[in-house]
């Protein structure tokens, strides 16, 4: 299996998008910095979209991509990865929509029935946690791709997803830690 530049770019941007979400989530959860978390989602969504486009273009016949959408095969890393990327993208997009609604509820509470703001916050919280779980899968999926390839250097170990999961986290934490990594 030979991977070209589009795959290498995808591996980088997907890992960065998942890592940014994860670190943004931690910053929001432990410091209350919602702007950093929102920035991670607003940047991560187009990165994942660009990565998916690169993956589709790298297929031998890109028009057959739809087969991955209608057939879920648990034994196929491409099938699982497709659904992970779709799931994370849907959650990220839904979060952006909820944040717009949340902002409108805060600015114009008289336009919304009582209790609507609380329901919007509950949906936002549920999406945030779903996105966290999916971001871990997005980051580790790139490691799974490396592990199932026929490259002798990394094909012999099942532990490849572990460092692939940790590297984006470290890279995203570096600016917050004063560049000490």
Task: Give a structural overview.
The protein is an all-alpha fold and 181 residues long. The chain has a single domain, classed as Formate dehydrogenase/DMSO reductase fold, CATH 1.20.1630. It is 76% helix and 0% strand. The longest helix has 33 residues, at 116-148. It is elongated and about 55 Å long. The chain starts with a helix and ends in an 8-residue tail after the last helix.
Average pLDDT reading: 77
Helical content band: over 70%
Q: What is the structural class?
A: mainly alpha
Overall shape = elongated
Which parts are unreliable, with pLDDT below 50 for 5 consecutive residues or more? 177-181
**CATH fold descriptor:** Formate dehydrogenase/DMSO reductase fold
**Amino-to-carboxy terminus distance:** 33 Å
> Per DSSP, what share of the residues sits in E-state strands of 2 or more residues?
under 5%
Q: What is the name of the CATH class?
A: Mainly Alpha
The CATH homologous superfamily is termed Formate dehydrogenase/DMSO reductase domain
Largest sheet properties: none
Helix and strand arrangement:
Elements: H1 5-31, H2 34-58, H3 66-70, H4 77-107, H5 116-148, H6 152-155, H7 161-173
Helix pairs in contact: 1-2, 1-5, 1-7, 2-4, 4-5, 5-7
């Amino acid at each position: 299996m030979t991977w070209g530049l589009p795959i290498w770019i995808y591996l980088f941007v997907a890992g960065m998008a998942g890592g940014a979400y994860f670190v943004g989530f931690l910053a929001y959860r432990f410091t209350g910095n919602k702007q950093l978390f929102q920035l991670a989602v607003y940047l991560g969504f187009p990165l994942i979209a660009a990565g998916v486009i690169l993956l589709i273009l790298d297929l031998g016949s890109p028009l057959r991509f739809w087969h991955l959408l209608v057939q879920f095969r648990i034994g196929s890393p491409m099938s699982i990865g497709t659904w992970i990327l779709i799931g994370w993208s849907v959650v990220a997009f839904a979060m952006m929509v909820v944040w717009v609604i949340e902002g409108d509820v805060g600015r114009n509470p008289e336009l919304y029935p009582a209790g609507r703001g609380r329901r919007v916050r509950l949906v936002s919280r549920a999406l945030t946690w779903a996105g966290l779980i999916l971001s871990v899968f997005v980051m580790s999926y790139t490691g799974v791709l490396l592990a199932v390839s026929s490259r002798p250097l990394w094909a012999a170990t099942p532990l490849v997803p572990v460092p692939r999961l940790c590297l984006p986290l470290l890279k995203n934490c570096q600016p917050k830690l004063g560049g000490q990594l």
